Amino acid sequence: MTPTLALEKPEALAALHPRPIPEEKNLTSLFQPVLSVKKMRVVGLEPVGRALDPSHRRFLEPRDFFRDRDCGDSTFKLALERFFHQKGLELFSGLQSQMYDPLLFLNIDPSTLDEKVVGSGYLLRQVAELSLAPRQIVLQISLGRDWNRPLVGKFIRLQRQDGFIIALKDVDAGRGRLDAVFRIHPDILKVTDRLTRGLARITERQDDFRGVVKQAHSLGVSVMAGALEGEEDALKALEYGADLLQGGYFTRNYGDNAVLTLGRKARMMFLASRYHRRMARRIQMDRDLKGRCQAAGDSLFHLFRDKPAELLEKGLSSQFPLYPALECLYLLDDKGVQASETPCNEANIPERKRFLYRPAPRGTDHALREYYYALSTGLGRHVTDPYLSLNSGNLCVTYARIMENPMGGGDYILCSDWNCSKI
Q1: Taking the model in full, what pTM does it have?
Q2: Is 73 left (phi over 0), alpha (psi -120 to 50) or beta?
Q3: Beta-carbon count within 10 A of 232 CB
């Protein structure tokens, strides 16, 4: 099957463009797989339009077609985009029986969208002619190019009504850009390649990547990481919560098979094995850390048990020489309000941090803290996950345990903060 509109035929493209356009037989789409390591399978394919230059026997990239033409020529770009969409859809249609519920990721250049294109229904007709369902098609719209936000928003609304899946790509960690992304509420977002290249070794990119993933997941949006060229970057993206992976690590040196190969499967299995081992080791380390904090916290609890509040507060600061990993001790009443001051171990708080991080004073409300919420549900004690302490600026774990008030009235909660690097 060949494209049906004359505008999308190669000879028509040649009339629009001064550079020689290859014959139709030399125009094709190559598939890049989109993988879910957690599902251990290829979940989708992204067609990338290519043209074979017969004289040099090499593939040309689409951007080579624009070298001698104004990049604002949306008519030619739209024609070329639709032609390669057709090629990708045709190839994808023939692969239905070889894959389990596959998705096709089609790239949409926002610079080609105008009022006529947005409401044309052309893409829906392309899909219907090949007996494909819109729910199988993911429309990827790049944020890295100039785009008319009202037109793109209208396009997304119409395509979503037709049943297409919406993805935004080239998403970065900039606050303003992220806010714009989540106002559109895509089904999938693909982080910019800048964040994934060198992800395993560049701390700033790790922080940005985790921030994007955390915000996306809080809104029910899946995250794709592309441009993964090495195993360590792929593993780190998986560890930080990426749902879908793509890149040269999964496609390099696999012969002629465009969809599934034993080599790709083996790499997914190896990556999944390393991920599971790493997560198991982390869980074990967290369990060991919490166990040590609980043992030390129980020891403190027994020292203070059955003492009235006045004696409790006087004895808090005397415990630091006995427990070098102990950072802070404080009491809460049964409403979650701090009932004591917060003595801190001065040896664990650098001088430069003492103005930035200050111990919480008496009367501070802790009712929204994890440990108070856990105890208010009926638990007698609780150990938190590691977090950045606002008392000291260090990575800490809080162990909280309910203490009976020997004088009657409401119970107290003894809270102890433990330095994760020293416990």
Answers
A1: 0.66
A2: beta
A3: 15
